[in-house]
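Progress narrative, Year 2. Work on EF-hand domain-containing protein from Lepeophtheirus salmonis advanced from sequence curation to structure prediction during this period.
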Amino acid sequence: MAGIDLTREQVAELREAFNEFDDDGSGTITTQELGYAMRAMGMNP
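Result:
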């Protein structure tokens, strides 16, 4: 898989969005947290 070049600002934005769904602050998201994130994006997992 090819890497994606992101600016520091883009990385910060992605990290901030990820942290919105990492409820316990573990640095990972559970399947339940992933479901919340997907529903927030209009998906129906």
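The chain is about 55% helix and 0% strand. The two ends are 25 Å apart (CA to CA).
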